[in-house]
Amino acid sequence: MHPSNRWYKPALVIVGLFAAVWMVLEGDMLRDVVLAGLLLLVGLMALMRRWSWMRSLPPRKTVALATVGGLAYGSGLVLLTLFLMTVKTGLHAHGPEYTSYELVWLWNQLLLWAAAGGLVGLGVGLLAVAARR
Fold first, then answer.
1. How far is residue 48 from each of residues 7, 26, 31, 45, 54, measured CA to CA in Å?
2. Which residues contact 7 (CB under 8 A, 6 or more apart)?
3. CA 37/CA 12 separation, integer angstroms
4. Rounded distance, CA 17 to CA 2, Å?
5. Distance between CA atoms of residues 36 and 112, nearest Å
6. Per-residue pLDDT reduced to its tens digit, 97-120
7. How many Cβ atoms are within 10 Å of 78's Cβ, its own excluded?
8. CA angle 120-82-72, nearest 5°?
9. How far apart (Å, rounded) are the C-alpha atoms in residues 111 and 91?
């Protein structure tokens, strides 16, 4: 059994419970970012379960794929958080949950979070290559 299989179902349950609680509470950007991060993490775990062929990639491709994955995670975190903020405002239908300042601030973080995700992905890729040797 692949190690990620052991953690996938419990992680999915935890994210589902957090999402149910998130839906009831008033809007808070920190909770939205945490939920978006957890959703992306569960999605990443699902990809890792399906793509076992990645372990046989050459080192350069492993590092490149991990870096691109990190970039996608970082930028996806901002975009998914914006989407969740929109959903939350629509669910509660009593006016805007977030100020325009919060939305603009989050949008302006896109490049920073993408770069941070790319650097983390690069580090993970280098660690994965080093662990094979």
1. 12, 34, 25, 5, 8
2. 45
3. 13
4. 25
5. 17
6. 888 899 999 999 999 999 999 999
7. 21
8. 30
9. 29
74, 109 in Cβ contact below 8 A?
A: no
Q: Is the pLDDT of residue 88 over 90?
A: no
pTM across the whole model: 0.83
Contacts of 11 (CB under 8 A, 6+ apart): 38, 41, 42, 45
pLDDT digits (tens, 9 = 90+) for 29-47: 899 999 999 999 888 878 7
Tell me the residue type at 105: W
Q: Say how far apart CA 86 and CA 80 lie, in whole Å.
A: 10
Which tokens go with 29?
Answer: 């950007």
Reduced to 3 states, what is the DSSP secondary structure of residue 101?
helix
Q: Which two tokens stand for residue 98?
A: 């977030």
Query: Is the CB of residue 81 less than 8 Å from the CB of residue 32?
Result: yes
| Helix residue ranges, H only, 53-94 | 59-92
Cα atoms found within 13 Å of the Cα of residue 130, Cβ hemisphere only = 6
The position carrying tokens 């280098």 is 126
